[in-house]
Design a protein that fits this description.
about 550 residues; alpha+beta; 5-stranded antiparallel sheet; 12 strands
Length: about 550
């Protein structure tokens, strides 16, 4: 099944709209002219009917006058009728229009233009439309008079045409008299008027067409040009000339508006260019700042690790002394047995295995310290926070066990976090050692206490809590302790918590402290989950 292209829509532009308006006006003029001609024709017929009614009344007056003469005895009845008919026969108007007289039996008494039909009975005669026109005239006269429309031939033609006659009765002689007009005369006059109107209409149409063409040209050409200007301005070509701004019509208004748009667009482009330059400079400064912060954080974190290891030196020496002393004793015993010559293979195998186990133990302690001290570029990877906490707790346990403090860890079912493993180890170790030191500050009461490490999900972050049972931190010092060189320890440097906050904030997290309701302090820090990002990721991107 092939897709069919959408047809191009017809562009109904101004030129076509002007033409359509002209055509609609033309059609409307023709329709109005038709109605006007129809009304004029009817008005002309009504005027002629009024005229023939008056003429018919005059003709009946002639009959009435002769009848009165007969009544006065001036003339006999036959003479009166003859005189009346003679007078009517000689009367003509409007060229060759005449009067006619019929009796109530539809017999023609007077028909001047058709004398051969006088004395003829027209009772059953019909016109070309099948109408008994004389009978209709008689009935109309007997009803008091009125207008009758029918078809009747002219004197010079056998062809019947439309005619309107007005008839009135003359009861004394059982006659009705009337006269009429041929309606084709009206149609001829209407046609003549139409011809004159048509001639004038053609002139008006020609002038209107010329005006429409000139107006369309004066509008469409500038609009086409301005449309091209708009397209180029849309393409950000602000060098395009506009023109037509000097015109005082709507085209001039559009041109001036486009000139303002052009100027505004040019200024906007300049502003955009300036903003892009400033954004590039700001991005460069930010990248430099992040790089510097990264270097500072690395140096601080390395220094903190060295300090921490120095502080752990006593515990490390004690922890390493035990396996080394054991190894020494086993080795001396084996040497003694060998010197006496009393040792066999099975006797030496047990002590040597135990010495090997102690050597592996000492090597593990040294390996953990070396891993902790190893310097590397910070990398933000998905890490198992429980594993980081567990490894760091092993380092702290060297000192905690010696002080009789147990470390409890609860960090199950956590999502992976985005972190630099060594940096977060440093944070955990600093907070754990601070907690141990705080509980030692409580004197002998520190023995038998527990330091807890809790990790839990907090929205898009994982929150870690280091909870001690020491004397706690006063509310007035809870922000001060994160400032550089502020410490509550007699031999402290005041840099550990400041470094921890710097590291956590570089990971996009937060570090703060609250009071432990059971006594002591709770240090909280958050790290983003694996699907989140942070400043450190930006700083470590190539």
């Amino acid at each position: 099944m092939t897709a069919t292209a959408n047809p191009t829509p017809l562009r109904f532009g101004i030129r076509l709209r002007l033409l359509a308006a002209s055509l609609v006006s033309l059609v409307g003029f023709i329709v109005l002219t038709g109605f006007a001609m129809q009304s004029l024709r009817q008005q002309m017929i009504d005027d002629r009917v009024t005229k023939i009614r008056h003429l018919t009344e005059v003709a009946r007056g002639i009959l009435q006058w002769q009848y009165q003469r007969f009544q006065r005895g001036e003339i006999d009845e036959a003479g009166a009728k003859r005189t009346a008919l003679d007078e009517l026969r000689t009367l003509h108007y409007a060229g060759n229009e005449y009067f006619f007289v019929d009796d109530f039996n539809c017999v023609s008494i007077l028909l001047p233009n058709f004398p051969q039909w006088e004395g003829r009975n027209f009772t059953d005669e019909v016109d070309s439309n099948g109408q008994h026109f004389v009978r209709t005239q008689r009935d109309t006269a007997l009803a008091g008079g009125g207008t009758v429309y029918y078809r009747f031939p002219k004197e010079d033609s056998r062809k019947s045409v439309d005619k309107a006659s007005y008839v009135l009765p003359f009861a004394p002689w059982q006659w009705f008299v009337g006269t009429g007009i041929y309606l084709d005369d009206v149609d001829l006059e209407i046609r003549a008027i139409l011809l004159r109107l048509l001639a004038g209409f053609v002139v008006v149409v020609a002038i209107t067409g010329l005006l429409v063409a000139l107006i369309a040209r004066s509008i469409t050409r500038p609009l086409d040009r301005l449309t091209g200007v708009i397209q180029r301005l849309t393409a950000r070509d602000y060098a395009v000339p506009i023109g037509d701004g000097e015109r005082s019509d709507e085209i001039g208004d559009i041109a001036r508006a486009l000139e303002i748009f052009k100027r505004t667009g040019r200024e906007f482009e300049a502003l955009q260019s300036e903003l892009r330059e400033k954004e590039a400079a700001a991005a460069a400064e930010r990248a430099a700042w992040l790089a510097q912060q990264r270097e500072d954080a690395i140096r601080l974190e390395q220094t903190s690790r060295l300090i921490t290891v120095g502080e752990l030196a006593t515990s490390l020496a004690h922890e390493l002394n035990q396996p080394l002393a054991t190894i020494t004793n086993y080795c001396r015993g084996c040497v003694t047995l060998l010197e006496e010559g009393t040792a066999d293979r099975q006797t030496l195998l047990g002590p040597m295995r135990k010495a090997t186990e102690q050597a592996i133990r000492a090597a593990g302690i040294v390996a953990r310290i070396r891993t902790y001290l190893r310097r590397s570029e910070p990398t933000l990877d998905a890490q198992d926070l429980r594993e980081i906490i567990g490894e760091t707790a092993q380092l702290a346990e060297l000192d905690a066990q010696r002080q009789g403090i147990a470390i409890d860890i609860a960090a199950a079912g956590l999502p992976r976090v985005l972190a630099d493993r060594i940096m977060i180890q440093q944070v955990v170790l600093n907070l754990v050692r601070n907690g141990i030191d705080a509980m030692l500050d409580a004197g002998e009461r520190g023995r038998g206490r527990r330091l807890s490490i809790r990790a839990l999900r907090a929205g898009a972050f994982v929150e870690t809590q280091v909870i001690d049972e020491g004397p706690g931190i006063g509310e007035e010092n809870r922000e001060k302790i994160f400032a550089p060189f502020f410490t509550t320890k007699a031999d402290g440097m005041g840099m550990g918590l400041n470094i921890c906050r710097t590291i956590v904030e570089f990971h996009g997290g937060r570090l703060w402290v609250d009071a432990n309701p059971a006594g002591g302090a709770i240090f909280h820090f958050t790290l983003p989950c694996e699907n989140a990002g942070g400043p450190l990721r930006e700083a470590t991107q190539p």
